[in-house]
Design brief:
- Two copies of one chain form a homodimer.
- The first copy, chain A, is α/β, with parallel strands linked by helices.
- Chain A folds into two domains: 2-77, Winged helix-like DNA-binding domain superfamily/Winged helix DNA-binding domain (Arc Repressor Mutant, subunit A), CATH 1.10.10.10; 83-196, Rossmann fold (3-Layer(aba) Sandwich).
- Helix content of chain A is 41%, strand content 17%.
- Chain A is built from nine helices and nine strands.
- The first copy, chain A, has helices at 7-25, 33-40, 44-52, 66-77, 92-99, 136-142, 154-166, 193-198, 201-204; strands at 30-31, 64-65, 83-88, 108-115, 124-125, 128-132, 147-150, 171-174, 187-190.
- In chain A, the strands form two sheets. Chain A has a seven-stranded mixed sheet.
- In chain A, helix 5 (92-99) links the parallel strand 3 (83-88) and strand 4.
- Chain A is globular, with a radius of gyration of 20 Å.
Amino acid sequence: MTLEIPEVVINRLPVYARALAELAAAGEAVISSQALGELLDVTPAQIRKDLSYFGRFGKQGRGYNVQVLLSKLREILGIDRQWRVCLVGVGRLGQAIAEYGGFGPQGFEILAAFDANPEVVGRELGTVPVFHSDDLDSFLRQNRVDIGIVAVPATEAQAVVNRLVGAGIRAILNYAPINAHVPNDVTIRHIDPVLAMQSMTFYIKRPEPSAK
Amino acid sequence: MTLEIPEVVINRLPVYARALAELAAAGEAVISSQALGELLDVTPAQIRKDLSYFGRFGKQGRGYNVQVLLSKLREILGIDRQWRVCLVGVGRLGQAIAEYGGFGPQGFEILAAFDANPEVVGRELGTVPVFHSDDLDSFLRQNRVDIGIVAVPATEAQAVVNRLVGAGIRAILNYAPINAHVPNDVTIRHIDPVLAMQSMTFYIKRPEPSAK
């Protein structure tokens, strides 16, 4: 079944789950695809189609049970459990990632960070210990790690990705501005604010930028 | 013509442009859609189809002229010029954004940052001056700003987006973990590492996570 579900659909499910979690926290028991679509600026038809890949949710004209759909989405996505993460690269960006408070509550625990810089090795960033990069491979042999975060400079990123993949990591969150290559059985997502900005300027460009 | 081009196509063009810039820097004069596809892990057919929205590039069997295609893509995307950016929110994340060296060389100049925290107001982050949030609206009246970056906590993000939109900003890069709403004539992109992680766990989950 997995192979038939488009990746764009999988990418939208976490957005639905987050909205449903907020509705549940606000005490809402039921929501229509119409109302959910308005919350998320997508069409109700898209929500219904996306969910149809995973079975039938909600009854015609009665909307979705918020808790039931949320639980089901969390199970489908695998976000109903704890995931173990390592971080490679502890420059300014890596430090911000290590100390970001948003991962833990969502079940993503950063176990350890790695860098070659003696100024950060041995420190703790929040609760995350920083080890030397040379210890990455042995750490991955001794500890189950599910996801690797890459926050090294672009020139080093592919080599780090290769080390993580070689150690059996199958999911990588890449902050380096390169199109890192991974084998087919490894999933990679890129966080790249420059590309995001460059995808917006198309919409705001004018023949002559107005001076002011 | 703009309305007919799918947003997913626009989102891919910056990736093509980045690869072409690297090829140009490496002295490559010509590249086939096959070779470009291999570099980017996409099919040559997708590259040809994406580019076909904008006219004819390259001759059958002879590949693309790297410099010509790069120039054309930069023009299409509007990344052949300087863009003026403001940053709202100077916590740890905002500081990392202000001091990130990757925006300037790509033509995105962060003119100013805004926060209400007296510990950061009046400071300079790299070359970016930090002003008080109260001065945001008057700054936007007095200076042309094209893009707003939102790096405030989730609870404040929609209000900040509304202020930016109200001041005429039509492109917003949002780092807050909310589905911020904008009018139809405003483009928004979200940078959300938790959602990115949650879209990967689908692919790596097992019925029972193996303990180790």
